[in-house]
Write a sequence for this structure.
């Protein structure tokens, strides 16, 4: 059989195959080099002092504890806001909405939100939360901005998961005399918990990596803020990513920047791993159906 | 049936239904608020400067004695940067997507998918930092320039950053091509490579097009990484000259500007937003046509 393929076709195939291998090789080498280089440059600069202090002008030391705390605060506040709205929206789309045109409109809006660049979120966040609603430059304003930004991610993942809940579950609950909300609370949401978890993890990934949307909403301060004053207005603070940008671009402290980059890289790896585990569970459940 | 529920339970049902409906329309509300705020704060400066002067003047010098607010340099830089990223990123991404979808052994496929999702998870400031430390000096040495922070460096960083979206969306599209198409081609004596590139890829072309449009959206909207590698001078763009994009024009002057200059920054954001809306519209059109 193979003898019937002309040399010209063989050469063409060989060229295309090698291009394909080259492209795949580029991706793998690129990722390995990126991770390797960042860890190599960053890890030697991470120390306990670096992680557990704030920057001091007098002692001329740099510590990133405030940035770590701010990142945690923003993640918590954002998730707290976006999760109920996102789940509610997905439930509405999947369980309540009957009008196809309305669903289409909501889905179009969700896609539009997903496509808006983070710098525009930052700008509008500044106009709406910082100025119009007078939060001031604050962690709260940053978190609200990110909640709007991550809403599409949550809606989409939860909706996917709701779709895998078999209709027989719903019919069973309704047949037993349950109301719609009761059915959603006791049957539908518990069966789609892994989708909710996945949506959560994906949003955390986006929040941790976000910088442009935070610079003008959450500000660039490096002071330690307590847990209970974090949600208050006029409490600005920079997250790890914003701090990385400031240290690298404005101050030329590249060792500090790489140390933060290494921490972000490790966080990204962990987040990806957990997201995959959750998604894996989700798929297995979907397959059981 | 409903009479079986107690009055209190009925009320709760009503309220929860209302809450879910409200949440459902949150996305619509947010899009409306964003649009209104961008137009309201972006239009006044355009009115003061004049639409023609704003879009077509090649000089941006808001702080000089005779201030000029032309954003043509930013528009051209954004368009050129995006085009460059697409020209480099799409062929590599598409080839990789084809390999993952049709040729990779099962284990390697898993590894590659994981690699792609990792690439998309890396924060843009990290790309910017690595670009600053590795790509900018490399571009300077290779091309013998006084400074490597220019459009070319930005294009390289952007082409890496769009790879994950291009790969994952095109891979999904290629996976969705019905097996019968390929089996028919193989039965007629075509080799696997020929089948994939002459049958599967053309059949998935609307999905691949969607991935390109998505990549355009990513590239044109990226701010931080571009800011760190492009030099950030408001010149008309040259491949090896320092440039400023629409995104970085907004980001770099927002913290200290005031008056008309600040208002003009909102107008730049409005222009960027309109670009994004057009891209979204095209994306929807492409996906819709695929479904039909």
């Amino acid at each position: 059989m193979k003898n019937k393929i002309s040399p010209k076709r063989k050469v063409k195939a060989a060229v295309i195959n090698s291009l394909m291998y080259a492209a795949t090789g580029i991706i793998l080498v690129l990722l390995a080099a990126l991770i390797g280089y960042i860890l190599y440059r960053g890890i030697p600069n991470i120390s306990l002092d670096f992680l557990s202090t704030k920057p001091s002008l007098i002692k001329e030391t740099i510590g990133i504890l405030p940035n770590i705390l701010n990142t945690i605060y923003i993640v918590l506040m954002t998730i707290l806001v976006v999760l109920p709205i996102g789940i509610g929206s997905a439930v509405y789309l999947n369980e309540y909405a009957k009008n196809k045109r309305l669903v289409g409109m909501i889905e179009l809006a969700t896609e539009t939100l997903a496509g808006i660049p983070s710098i525009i979120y930052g700008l509008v966040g500044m106009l709406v939360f910082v100025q119009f609603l007078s939060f001031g430059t604050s962690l709260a304003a940053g978190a609200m901005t990110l909640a709007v930004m991550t809403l599409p991610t949550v809606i989409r993942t939860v909706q996917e998961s709701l779709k895998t809940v078999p209709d027989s579950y719903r019919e069973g609950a309704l047949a037993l005399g349950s109301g719609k909300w009761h059915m959603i609370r006791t049957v539908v949401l518990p069966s789609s918990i892994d989708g909710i978890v996945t949506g959560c993890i994906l949003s955390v990934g986006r929040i941790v990596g976000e910088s442009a949307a935070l610079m003008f909403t959450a500000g660039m301060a490096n002071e330690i803020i307590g847990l209970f004053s974090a949600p208050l207005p006029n409490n600005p603070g920079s997250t790890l990513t914003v701090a990385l940008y400031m240290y690298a671009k404005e101050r030329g402290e590249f060792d500090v920047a790489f140390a933060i980059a290494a921490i972000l890289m490790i966080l990204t790896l962990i987040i990806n791993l957990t997201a995959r585990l959750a998604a894996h569970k989700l798929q297995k459940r979907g397959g059981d159906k | 049936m409903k009479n079986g529920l107690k009055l209190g339970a009925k009320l709760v049902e009503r309220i929860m239904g209302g809450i879910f409906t409200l949440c459902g329309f949150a996305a619509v509300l947010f899009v409306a608020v964003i649009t209104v705020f961008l137009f309201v704060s972006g239009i006044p400066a355009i009115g003061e400067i004049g639409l023609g002067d704003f879009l077509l003047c090649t000089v941006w010098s808001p702080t000089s004695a005779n201030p000029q607010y032309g954003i043509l340099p930013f528009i051209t830089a954004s368009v050129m940067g995006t085009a460059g990223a697409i020209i480099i990123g799409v062929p590599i991404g598409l080839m990789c997507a084809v390999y993952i979808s049709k040729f990779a052994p099962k284990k390697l496929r898993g590894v590659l998918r994981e690699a792609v999702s990792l690439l998309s998870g890396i924060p843009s400031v990290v790309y910017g930092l690595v670009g600053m430390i590795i790509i900018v000096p490399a571009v300077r040495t290779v091309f013998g320039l006084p400074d490597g922070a220019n459009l070319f460096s930005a294009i390289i960083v952007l082409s890496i950053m769009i790879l994950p979206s291009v790969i994952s969306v095109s891979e999904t599209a290629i996976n969705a091509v019905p097996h019968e198409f390929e089996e028919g081609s193989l039965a007629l004596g075509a080799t696997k490579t020929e089948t994939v590139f002459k049958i599967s890829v053309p059949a998935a072309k609307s999905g691949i097009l969607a991935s390109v449009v998505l990549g355009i959206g990513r590239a044109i909207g990226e701010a931080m990484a571009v800011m760190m590698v492009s030099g950030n001078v408001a010149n008309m763009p040259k491949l090896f000259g320092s440039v400023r994009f629409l995104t970085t024009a907004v980001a770099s002057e927002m913290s200290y500007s005031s008056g008309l200059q600040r208002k003009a920054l909102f107008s730049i954001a409005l222009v960027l937003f309109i670009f994004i809306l057009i891209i979204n519209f095209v994306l929807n059109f492409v996906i819709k046509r695929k479904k039909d």
About this structure: The mean pLDDT of chain A is 88. Chain A touches chain B through 92 residues (CB under 8 Å).
